[in-house]
Design a protein that fits this description.
By secondary structure, this protein is of the alpha/beta class. 45% of the residues lie in helices and 11% in strands. One of its GO terms (cellular component) is peroxisomal matrix.
């Protein structure tokens, strides 16, 4: 979220993968679009109390060629991130939320105590989100809408009823509430609940190629990851990010080969067995 997306976006474009830009990125919608105009761009969206702020973001994403909106529904306000509070989390002085001007851009750095990010989110994000807001968003744009933050079969079915185009099984990096289930654990029931009505994607805990194969076997159509890209960026900028993507590609190819899968259609659910199965042996 806080690193320059230019490096990772260039790497994603070169690899032919999708890049999702955060609402609170430190580089703007327009800057990212200009940096890699031919890449596949999705825009991650939070809904602000002031709906005009949200509408402005949507229109800018549309004009900049973004292909979908990813509405995050599991963070209308942030959980108790004690490390952030203890460390008085804020942006470095040379960075800002580049999609905004004035208070919306700098407010994270004005907190007197605790986490500046928590104060920003709790003051400006709409904590009263409901399924009606998803329907409002559908009426607002012609872009496909992907809901990020689904963790139960019930919510997955409600998402389908609301008319979205896809869902991302996600627990927000397990940073919202202690004890939240791993996404790979709930993926099977969710993919079973929605069937072919919408595409199901997954993120969370994906650090190697075999994780991707497992998610595909359990019903995901696509798998997203973020932390490995940050590791690559920290190590070597665009080159490091590209190396992470290439490493992931090699590991996926190896996982396919060692499980006898020549293509996606060869992957079956019985290739993945839950750990509880072995506890009964």
């Amino acid at each position: 979220m806080f690193t320059s997306p230019f490096y990772q976006f260039a790497a994603a474009q070169a690899a032919g993968t999708i890049f999702i830009l955060s609402t609170i990125s430190t580089s703007s919608i327009e800057e990212v679009a200009e940096a890699a105009p031919d890449g596949i761009k999705w825009f991650q969206l939070y809904i602000y109390i002031d709906r005009n702020v949200t509408l402005n973001l949507i229109r800018r994403a549309e004009r900049a060629g973004f292909k979908a909106l990813v509405l995050t529904i599991d963070a209308p306000f942030f959980g108790d991130r004690r490390a952030d509070v203890r460390n008085k989390f804020a942006l470095p002085s040379h960075l800002r939320f580049a999609n905004f001007e004035g208070d919306l851009s700098q407010r994270i750095n004005t907190a007197k105590t605790g986490s500046g990010l928590n104060e920003y989110v709790n003051a400006l994000f709409d904590a009263s989100l409901s399924w009606d807001d998803v329907k409002w968003l559908k009426r607002t744009t012609t872009l496909p809408i992907i809901l990020k933050g689904i963790l139960t079969a019930e919510d997955a079915r409600l998402a389908v009823e609301s008319g979205v185009d896809g869902i991302i099984v996600s627990n927000h990096g397990a940073r919202q509430i202690d004890g939240v289930p791993a996404t790979i654990e709930v993926l099977p029931e969710i993919s079973k609940a929605v069937g072919d009505q919408v595409e199901v994607y997954m993120d969370g805990g994906v650090t190697q190629g075999i994780d991707v194969l497992k998610a595909l076997a359990l019903g995901a159509k696509m798998v997203f990851f973020g932390r490995p890209m940050l590791w690559g960026l920290a190590y070597g900028g665009e080159k490091g990010a590209s190396e992470i993507l290439e490493l992931m590609r090699r590991e996926i190819d190896l996982a396919f080969a060692l499980t006898g899968c020549a293509s996606l259609k060869d992957i079956t659910r019985d290739m993945v067995i839950h750990a509880s199965y072995y506890s009964r042996l």
